[in-house]
Amino acid sequence: MAEAGATHHLLSSLDDIAWLTNLRGADVDYNPVFLAHMLISEHDATLFIDNNKVSSEIAQSLKDSGITLADYDAVQDALGTLTADDLLLLDPSKVAVGTLSKMGDGIGFIEQMAPSTLLKSVKSDADIDHVREAMRQDGAALSEFFAAFEQRLADGERLSELDVDSMLIEVRSQQPHYVSPSFPTIAGFNENGALPHYRATPEKFSYLDVNEGEGGLLLIDSGAQYQNGTTDITRVVGIGQVSSEHKRDFTTVLKAHIALAKAHFPDGIASPPLIDAICRAPLWQAQMDYGHGTGHGVGYFLNVHEGPQVIAYSASMPKERAMKEGMISSNEPGLYREGKYGIRIENLMVNKRVAQPIETEFGDFLNFETVTYCPIDTRLIESSLLTQIEIDWLNNYHSQVYAELKDRVEGAALEWLTERTKAI
Questions:
Q1: How many Å apart are CA 171 and CA 421, to the nearest integer?
Q2: CA–CA separation, 23 and 32 (whole Å)
Q3: Do residues 55 and 127 both lie within one domain?
Q4: Which has the least CB within 10 A, 92, 198, 226, 237?
Q5: Each residue of 80-130: pLDDT tens digit?
Q6: What is the distance of C-alpha 362 from the center of its chain?
Q7: Beta pairing class for 365-370 and 215-222
Q8: 314 near 293, Cβ under 8 Å?
Q9: Of the candidates 331, 392, 407, 323, which has an alpha carbon nearest to the alpha carbon of residue 140?
Q10: 3-state class of 291 per DSSP?
Q11: What secondary structure letter does DSSP report for 204?
Q12: E strand spans, 227-305
């Protein structure tokens, strides 16, 4: 605030307030945030919130930190006390006009991204260690899910897209620190998978049925909120006899995923289209593409979509989008054939400084550490389309997945994990 010249700072973005106060709530489905505003000055801060939500213990902790409580609706009156000598810092994209309705004339504004948005995008080493543990928990749950799912199909049980959602919630809820899904599960079979934001409902869903000798693809995009991290993962499952076209398209998407996972880039690069193009290159080479971004930031037990960083060719390039060490982003290239099927492979990655950097006059470089631990289905891969470097990446990834999860599962889930992480 001092660097910007502000005397006061208004926050209305719920993820910023949750991060800054180190509190979480349940006012918004899938996002562990609470309805509030926050007004910060040089010497104090006020949290405008429904006081019924705040225990006496939390109120005392906030008071000890210099944060006083006020009714949620009192924020407008508080802003009305500012004078022409004050300068109010706010993010115009995250403050409603009505919140400012009682401000007097002549109040100066500084309009920019909230400092907390930039600060919370860079996770601490402790945050990242917790996230890795949440990913291990999630990977163990997914091993349980896929083992049970495949067995039920093999036993001839008729399953639907809705069953996928309920089964995922059941296995994840048995993990420590589980809170809720991090977004509505996308389970799209065949043509439904070609809709990137499809969601099955009790009124409209598909069964995972295939005719004898035929096959289809099931796209599953899901995630969870744990108290030690937020997860987001997409995997594709073959149902029945998958075709050579399925395998070709899946392998091409995998090549794109690997291209980004292996990328090195300058520390602080603020050009999302450049990194996005690294991922799309194998698809473009095959004259294929997809219509959504390649990656989004992810919060720490916060919103599953959380900037400022983004990996997308259509994104603007302000300096705030710069890639920095400690940021967590998704890697999710896809391919969608309308009326037929969809493919997307998604892991989460941490920006890490390149280990043992080469002596160079070109500055520091970052690369990605994949922190999602779940096998990629090798039964859908046409290995002749992969280079040896790509095969090595996949085998190394699966070796890591096995090492991280083998002591967390047993029985059928361990058998499934062992089989799905075999080298190709």
A1: 20
A2: 9
A3: no
A4: 92
A5: 999 999 999 999 999 999 999 999 888 899 999 999 999 999 999 999 999
A6: 31
A7: unpaired
A8: yes
A9: 407
A10: coil
A11: B
A12: 229-230, 233-240, 264-266, 295-296
Q: Which domain covers residue 41, as residue numbers?
A: 8-113
Which helix (DSSP H) or strand (DSSP E) does residue 137 occupy?
helix 125-154
Output the furthest CA–CA distance in the chain (Å, rounded).
Answer: 77
Q: 351 and 247, same structural domain?
A: yes
Cα separation, 95 vs 101, in Å, equals 12
Are both 53 and 128 inside the same structural domain?
A: no
User: How many Cα atoms are found within 13 Å in the side-chain-facing hemisphere of 26?
Assistant: 7
Global confidence as pTM: 0.94
What's the DSSP call for residue 207? B
Peptide bond just before 308 cis, omega within 30 deg: yes
φ, ψ dihedrals at 412, nearest 5°: -60, -35
Can you spell out the DSSP letters for 80-116?
HT--TT-EEEE-GGGS-GGGGTTPPTT-EEEES--HH
- Give the pLDDT of residue 363: 81
CA-to-CA separations, 247 to 41, 214, 253, 385, 393, in angstroms, rounded: 58, 14, 10, 10, 18
> Cβ atoms within 10 A of the Cβ of 125, count?
8
Helix axes 388-405, 244-261, angle to 10 degrees: 80
Distances in whole angstroms, Cα of residue 416 to Cα of each of 81, 143, 224, 298, 352:
63, 7, 22, 29, 31
On whether both 193 and 288 belong to a single domain, the answer is yes
**Helices then strands, each counted (H, E), the chain:** 10, 20
Q: What residues have CB less than 8 Å from 83, skipping those under 6 apart?
A: 104, 107
Query: In whole angstroms, what is the distance from residue 16 CA to residue 358 CA?
Result: 37
63-72: b (≥16 Cβ within 10 Å) or e:
eeeebebbee
Tens of pLDDT along 200-223?
A: 999 999 999 999 889 999 999 999
97 and 190 share one domain: no
Q: Which residues of the chain have pLDDT under 50?
A: none
Sheet holding 8-11, edge to edge: 67-70, 45-48, 37-41, 8-11, 87-90, 108-111
Length of the chain: 424
SS3 185: coil
Joined tokens for residue 404: 């991280």
> Do residue 370 and residue 274 come from a single domain?
yes
